[in-house]
# Entry
Amino acid sequence: MSNNKKHSSHSHHNHGDMDHSKHDHNEMEHHGGHHDHHAGHDHSGHGGHDHHHHGDFKELFLKSLPMGIIIMLLSPMFGFQLPFQFTFQYSDILVALLSTILYIYGGKPFYMGAVDEFKEKAPGMMALVTLGISVSYFYSVYAVIAGYVTGEHVMDFFFEFASLVLIMLLGHWIEMKAVGEAGDAQKALAELVPKDAHVVLEDDSIETRPVADLQVGDLIRVQAGENVPADGTIQRGESRVNEALVTGESKPIEKNPGDEVIGGSTNGGGVLYVEIMQTGDKSFISQVQTLISQAQSQPSRAENLAQKVAGWLFYIAVIVALIALVIWMVIADVPTAVIFTVTTLVIACPHALGLAIPLVTARSTSLGASRGLLVKDRNALELTTNADAMVLDKTGTLTTGEFKVLDVELFNDKYTKDEIVALLAGIEGGSSHPIAQSIISYAEQQGIRPVSFDSIDVISGAGVEGQANGHRYQLISQKAYGRNLDMDIPKGATLSVLVENDEAIGAVALGDELKPTSKELIQALKKNNIQPIMATGDNEKAAQGAAEILGIDYLANQSPQDKYELVEKLKAEEKKVIMLGDGVNDAPSLALADVGIAVGAGTQVALDSADVILTQSDPGDIESFIELAQKTTRKMKENLVWGAGYNFIAIPIAAGILAPIGITLSPAVGAVLMSLSTVIVAINAMTLKLEPK
# Structure
C-alpha cells in the first residue's frame, strides 16, 4: 500500500467521484443552483435566535416606522412634554390603538423567538426583548384605562415602548445586513455559474437552455470570456481557462481536448466544446457550497457559550428587575418602581452577544474561502491556536507527487548535455513508466528532439538497452551499474546511468520535488511552536532526503495504521495534534487528529474525514490558516466581552443602583446603548483581515 498509494488523489480535477450522497448533512436545501443563501448564516441552534423565520426586518422596520413616529409625537416621554409633541382629546386612545398594532406587528419576531427559546428551555435573547416591550406595552395600556376610570393621569410608557420596538427592529436589520455581507461565500460561488448554457444539437445548431436543465452527456459551447456552466470534459477546441475563483490557482491553465473543466471557471480566448460530466449538486461548486454551509451552520463551542451568557443575563435581568421593583415600591411608589423594572428588562437585551460569534464566523469563513481554506469544523480554529504537533504526509502533500528530472550529469566530453538528454529521451521512447515519461517531458520542455533508436529491449530488473546510429546504449539503475559515480546526487533522488560500451557517459537524477511553499510551512510551524513530524509511506532514503532539506523529524515506511498509531501516541501524551494529508491512506489519521487538514479537494475520503481543506493544495496556505485561527479566536473573545460586558454594567444602573447620586438610564437611552454595542461588535467582526500573501 505504501508506495502505490497515490493515484492523482491530489489532482484538482477528479471531482467526478465526489458523490456526496454519503453526507446527510442538510443536503435538503441544496438542490442544484437555487441555494438558499441564508443557509450559511441561519442562526438556528442558538436558542431560537433564528431570524429568518420571523420576517424581514427591513420591511418590518419601514412599516412600523410611521406608527412609531405618530406614537412618539402623541405621547410624552416619561411624562415630560417635548417641544415637538402635542396631545388632543382622546389622543391617548389613538396612541393605545396604534401601540397595539405595533406590538402585534413589530413585536412579532421577538415573541415568536421567545416562544422558541422557552420550548428549548433556554431563554435568551428574544425572551429578554419580549419581556422589555411587553412590560412597557401592558403597563401603558393599563395606565390609559386607569386614567379614564379614576380621572387622574397615570404615567404611561408608550414613547419608550415605540422607540424600543423601532430601535430593536433597526438593530436587527443592521445585524442581518452585516451577517449577510460577512457570510456570502456561497452566494458568490453560485454567481460564478452562468444562468444559461449554449447546447449543441445533433445538427450542429445551438439552443440556449437554463443551466438547471442540463443533462450529463450534453455537449455545450463555451464562448471566449464566458464562465463554464457545469463540470465537463473538453471534446474539441483549446483555450486557457482561469480557475482562480474555484481552485485558487491564479494562472490561467491551458486546456486541450480531453481535459476537464470546472463549472464556474472563466474561459479565455478560445471557443470550447464541452461534454457535461456533472451537474447540479454533484458539481464541484455545489460540493464546495455544501461544505461551506455545513461549516457555517455548525454551532461552535464559542457560540454555545454566547447562548449560555444570554441565558444568565435573562435570569440576572429578571432577578434584578424584581429586586428593583420591591425596593423602589418601598422607598418610592409603584410608577417609579415600574419605571426601573421596565428599564432593567429593556436594557438587558444582549443583542450584541447574539451577534458576537456568528458575525466573526461568517467573516472568517468567507475570508478563508477566498484564500483556499475551507473550514468544515469551526472548532478547528479554536483547537489550532493551542496545537503542539503537526503530522505531515510527504508525497503529494509536501512534494508535488510527480517524478521530475532534478539533474543531468555528464561523465566525459564526447557528448553535450543536450545530446545526452536526446539519447535519454530516445531510449525511453517506448515506455509508459512514470520515470520514462518524466524524462520525455523534460526533453520536450528543453525543446530537444529524442534520438530515434532502431531497437529497444528491456533488461529485466535493471533497465533498458537499445541501438542508435550503430552504437549500443543502456540506461540502467545505479545498483545495476554497480560502480561509484563521481557526482552529487540530490537528496532523496533515484539515479539512472546511461552507459555506452560499458562506460558511464551520463546520468539522470529523478525525484519527487518539494512544493515551493513546503519550507515556508515548516518555518511557520516552528515560529508558532508547533512541532512538525513527517510520516510517509515512502522508503527511508526518499524520506530522509526531503526531511533533511526541510530540517524536520521523519518516519519512513509508514502504513495508514502506523500513521494512525502515531497520532494516537501523540494524543496520549496530551498533545493537540494537527494532521496534514492528501489521500485515502491519511483518512483515518485525519479523522483522529484534533484538527485534520486535507490537501486538495481530490479524494472524497480525505474530504469526508478532514476538518479543513486546502483547495489550492498549497502547504504554504497553512500559515494563513494558523493566522486565521488565531485572529478568529481573538475576535470571538473580544466580541463576547463587548457583547456581555456592557450588560453587566448596564443592568444594575438601569435598576437604579446609582439613582441616589442622580444617575439613571431611561429605556430609550438603554436601547440606543444596546444598539451601539451591536454596531461595535459588527464592526469588530468586519475588521478581521489576513496579512496579504
